[in-house]
Design a protein that fits this description.
alpha/beta; nine-stranded mixed beta sheet; 9 strands
């Protein structure tokens, strides 16, 4: 007679198994029912398949089977070959996206600020200042010459901070090939024009090309370390969104697609301001109950503004909305959360800005958002409809103590 313990002899394991089963089933149902469509990894006929190279690469982490199944794609199709990508910017996120594309076997050129930085990247395989402990893939090169970077680019990835984007784009506009699509990974609102990146790009690079916008919970260091990540690429051109998803997708980097550009841009902007408020709460040692409540109410303000501007509710409830908000508000790598923590501990905005060389996008976005809300929204006492957004600006201006 078997000595095995019957399954139902221990209520706790059975209950636990049922809970896990329900959770896994819920994840799978949400994944299939979601309106955002997952896309496949890039397939290049020659040289050998990136999927094969990725499987044998020692730099890739082995993922648990359940994570692999959630990140895996359901179909595949090839992009035009050869494909070459230009990445505008040399900051953390530019390095992460360049590495993501290059690991798929695509030649990728970083357009950086100065020739010295470019030479350092090309010789040492790492950036001299940003994430300098992490090596870049062999397929990544760098240059400070926009003509060299852009002349034969199939796709352009823009990863310059929003407040510097317009001036940067004007400098390189004459070198950008006609009709070459642009993927923007910059999040925020320009303080001078109150425009989102889709407006800035069209004004500076014209309307005769297609644009797409990437957002989602995606810390640059985790992407560089090949930790599992999921993002959204939004474009009014569904084929472009699909092609860009193919370009970026890998076993550790899953890309969903959407046509809701407004929702992706609103979510990517507002979440940084909410993250500053979350950091303030943390700096004041108010506890997780208060912090979680504050972030939840911040998401309600994001939804209110997004719906007013024509965003889809599902986008604001997805990766580029609450998903990115959770990561930015609670993640230890979040610059905006860290900025808020220092505000909560008593430092002023001027003191923090003078002591950091990294951009916390939520600072400028807080000012722009309030002006945007005042200009576009109708109604009495807008500060009561958006108390967190207005409150963060008041704290930054010194009108309200943290």
């Amino acid at each position: 007679m078997s000595s095995a313990i019957p399954f139902n002899s221990s209520p706790l394991p059975r209950f636990t198994v049922r809970i896990l089963y329900v959770l896994v089933l819920a994840i799978l149902l949400i994944s299939h029912a979601c309106s955002l469509v997952p896309s496949a990894p890039l397939l290049i006929r020659s040289p050998p398949s990136p999927r094969r190279r990725l499987a044998s690469s020692p730099s890739r982490r082995r993922l648990p089977p359940f994570v692999t199944s959630l990140l895996a794609s359901d179909s595949s199709h090839a992009l035009p070959y050869p494909v070459r990508v230009a990445v505008l910017g040399g900051g953390n996120f530019a390095l992460a996206l360049a590495s993501t594309v290059a690991r798929n076997g695509v030649g990728t050129t970083l357009l950086v600020r100065d020739a010295e930085t470019a030479a350092s990247i090309n010789s040492d395989r790492r950036h001299p200042r940003y994430m300098s402990d992490l090596a870049l893939p062999p397929a990544v090169s760098a240059t400070a010459d926009p003509e060299v970077a852009l002349k034969s680019a199939t796709y352009i990835i823009h990863a310059v901070p929003v407040q510097y984007s317009r001036a940067f784009l004007r400098q390189i506009a004459s070198h950008v090939p006609p009709h070459t699509p642009v993927l923007s990974a910059s999040k925020g609102i320009e303080t001078t024009s109150l425009g989102f990146m889709n407006e800035i790009l069209e004004e500076e690079l014209g309307t005769e090309r297609e644009y797409a916008f990437l957002s989602g919970p995606s810390f640059a260091r985790e992407i560089m370390e090949c930790l599992a990540t999921a993002v959204v690429v939004a474009s009014t051109d569904k084929q472009l969104a699909s092609d860009l998803a193919d370009l970026l997708s890998s076993p550790t980097f899953r890309v969903f697609t959407s046509s809701d550009v407004t929702g992706v841009e609103v979510g990517g902007s507002v979440k940084n301001v909410i993250a500053i408020s979350s950091g303030i709460c943390e700096g004041l040692n108010l506890g997780m109950n208060a912090q979680a409540s504050l972030v939840t109410r911040g998401c309600a303000e994001m939804r209110r503004l997004g719906l007013y501007m024509g965003a889809e509710p599902s986008t604001l409830a997805g990766l580029s909305g609450v998903g990115d908000t959770f990561g930015t508000c609670f993640g230890p790598l979040s610059r905006n959360r860290a900025f808020g923590v220092r505000l909560g501990k008593g430092e002023t905005m001027a003191e923090i800005l003078a002591d950091t060389n990294e951009v916390a996008e939520g600072v400028d976005t807080a000012f722009a958002l309030v002006d945007l809300i005042k200009g576009k929204s109708k109604g009495y006492r807008l500060d009561l409809k958006y108390p967190i957004i207005f409150g963060v600006r008041n704290i930054l201006e010194g009108k309200l103590d943290a």
